[in-house]
Amino acid sequence: MKKFYMTMVALLCGVAAMAQNELVVNDQTFDPGTTAGTLTIGLNNEGAVTAVSFKLALPTGVKAKAVKNFTFNEERIDMTKVCAALEDEEAEAGDLYTFDRKSAGDDYMYSFYPQTSRYQDGGNWVAVTFLGNSGDLIYVPLTFEADGEYEIKLYDIGIANDEATAKSIATSTEATCTLYVGTTGINGVNADNENAPVYNLAGQRLSKVQKGVNIIGSKKVIK
């Protein structure tokens, strides 16, 4: 019985260690000649989250469109509680959430937050939180000047829970990805190994190169 309880404690500790409060961006591949695309920003949260903020670093050749062109995943955000996300437009007293962009040095800082930490519903004060605990959150429209590989970075990430505190509960303060415009996103493949068998890290043979780490010949190749 003691061994059983020790096992359960270990499992619970493992679950706690895996708990995350993070913004997520993934590598994406676009067709050659693409001039516009979308950066998907996801949110994984262990518990209730009321606000997120981040700075966005874009390389030369990539620009983000105006905030009014951003879209949001309505399965995670109750859009009836979001004010019109227009640049230079002040949120009104009745708006519960707002999304804005401010200059932050050479980059921009984006914030999605409630006008107040709570709103009144039938005489009760209820926390305004994002819906669910994982999935897409914000879609950022981008423009590309030319084909190439572009590293995108979110940094100074802040995530707030429903408590009245200014302390961020973010697990990590940075997230990066690479956008491949007109390229395959495969590094290190050449004429010597392009016809070589492909395996994953578990040693299973693949019919083609897949996203992630592949073993081609004797080399690790990242897609």
Give the SSE layout.
Blueprint: H1 2-18, E1 22-24, E2 28-30, E3 36-44, E4 51-57, E5 62-64, E6 71-72, E7 97-104, E8 107-114, E9 118-121, E10 124-127, E11 136-144, E12 148-160, E13 175-181, E14 198-199, E15 205-206, E16 213-216, E17 219-222
Parallel strand pairs: 2-13
Antiparallel strand pairs: 1-3, 3-11, 4-8, 4-12, 5-11, 6-11, 7-8, 9-10, 12-13, 14-15, 14-16, 16-17
Polypeptide structure, described:
This protein is mainly beta and 223 residues long. It is built from 1 helix and 17 strands. The protein is 8% helix and 41% strand. It has a 6-stranded mixed β-sheet, with no helix packed on it. Strands 1, 3, 5, 6 and 11 form a 5-stranded antiparallel β-sheet that branches. It has a 4-stranded antiparallel β-sheet with strand order 15-14-16-17, with no helix packed on it. A hairpin with a 2-residue loop joins strand 16 (213-216) and strand 17. The chain starts with a helix and ends with a strand.
